[in-house]
Amino acid sequence: MEMLWTPLHAKIHRTIRARHLFEPNQSLLVAVSGGQDSLCLIKILLDLQPKWGWRLGIAHCDHCWRDDSQANARHVESLAKIWETPFYLATAKEPVKSEAAARNWRYQALSKIAQTNNYQYIVTGHTASDRAETLLYNLIRGTGADGLQALTWQRPLTASIMLVRPLLEITRSETEKFCQEFNLPIWEDATNQDWKYARNRIRQELLPYLQENFNPKVESALAQTAELLQAEVEYLEQTAGNLRLDAMELGKGDDIALRLNRRVLRTAPLALQRRVMRQVLQQILPDAPGFEHIEKLTALITAPNRSQTDPFPGGAIAQVIDDWICFQDL
Ligand SMILES: Nc1ncnc2c1ncn2[C@@H]1O[C@H](COP(=O)(O)OP(=O)(O)OP(=O)(O)O)[C@@H](O)[C@H]1O
Predict the structure, then answer these.
(1) Which residues form the tRNA(Ile)-lysidine/2-thiocytidine synthase N-terminal domain (predicted)?
(2) Does this chain's domain 7-230 share its CATH topology with 251-328?
(3) Whose alpha carbon is nearest atom 14 of ligand 1?
(4) Which residues of 247-285 are buried (b: 16+ CB within 10 A; e: fewer)?
(5) How does DSSP assign 66-105, residue by residue?
(6) pLDDT digits (tens, 9 = 90+) for 115-136
(7) Residue 142 labelled as part of a binding site
(8) Most ligand 1 atoms within 8 A of CB, residue of 97, 126, 138, 191 to mutate
(9) Domains of the chain by residue range
């Protein structure tokens, strides 16, 4: 069968080259749910394969939370057979309960398959639309820039395995059109899982509303915002990391307990002060630190001597002793 080369093929080909997502002859494990995005992804990668010499594999995760999940898995398996591509299935032992649990289990299962079968990359079908939805979802919940930068092009999953998302500049309507064009048999996800509910409403109600009333290209615009924020967050986090080391370094030697030098922190911009405090709290608290925790700790940078915070979750308190903010377990 002759291969049809579309503008979408060309775009993904260019993206992979320009962003150095993959090099020739590497081993790519593609995560295929059977939905339109991951079918579009695997079809394009299969078509690009002769140009790049990749070794491709298809992995599917059966979460066991839908009646049709086994049929879904078999559907993907039969496509893998048609495409003469190795197929790997991970099946959850017990149904997973939440979005977070499902995601954790999935990435662990995928990593294990990749490790056992020598794939360097796990590839997912996240799109610009996913990016826009995640950005809106986190914006409404009230995260800072870090929640809005959502979904990176690549990030390490383990020391030897990279997670890569080549479709981040493609919208859902483009993957849908692509699947129609190539008659790819999409497995419709019929569930209305609780955790998917908010996202579905963003997808089906909020984004179309914004599109009609504010900006026809709202999805791409939001995805682009996420892209810009990503570089800014990376820069701020790195700078804050260095500042945190500077603030702690002066206390080195005599001291085992964690402490931060206020003179070092006082001259830094507020944005960095907050990030330093968040990084410190991330090490101390059992859960992700909230806005209030970070603000209270940041206030100690200029507070009078002997000021202290209430106990943080887990019991630690922070106290000002002259030039230092000191942490004590209660
Ligand atoms: N059951 C599955 N088996 C294999 N891959 C999957 C499965 N579900 C999702 N994926 C991969 O993850 C991508 C994103 O899927 P989707 O948006 O449905 O999940 P999500 O839960 O929002 O993802 P994440 O939790 O990673 O943000 C898909 O394009 C696909 O590559």
Answers:
(1) 28-205
(2) no
(3) 126
(4) bbeebeeeeeebbbbbebbeebeeebbbbbbbbbbeebb
(5) STTHHHHHHHHHHHHHHTT--EEEEE-SS---SHHHHHHH
(6) 999 999 999 999 999 999 999 9
(7) no
(8) 126
(9) 7-230, 251-328
Pocket lining for ligand 1, CB < 6 angstroms:
31-33, 37-38, 59-61, 103, 124-126, 130
The single-letter DSSP state of residue 290 is: P
Q: Looking at this predicted complex, what is its ipTM?
A: 0.94
User: Which architecture, in CATH terms, is 251-328?
Assistant: 2-Layer Sandwich (3.30)
| For the CA of 63, the nearest atom of ligand 1 | 1
Annotated binding residue at 78? no
Residue 132 in tokens: 């826009």
Residue 154 contacts residue 241 (beta carbons within 8 Å): no
Q: Which class would CATH give 7-230?
A: alpha beta
Residues 25-69 pLDDT 10s: 999 999 999 999 999 999 999 999 999 999 999 999 998 877 889
User: Separation of 268 CA from ligand 1 center, angstroms?
Assistant: 40
CB 45 within 8 A of CB 17: no
The predicted model scores a pTM of: 0.87
* DSSP structural state of residue 204: I
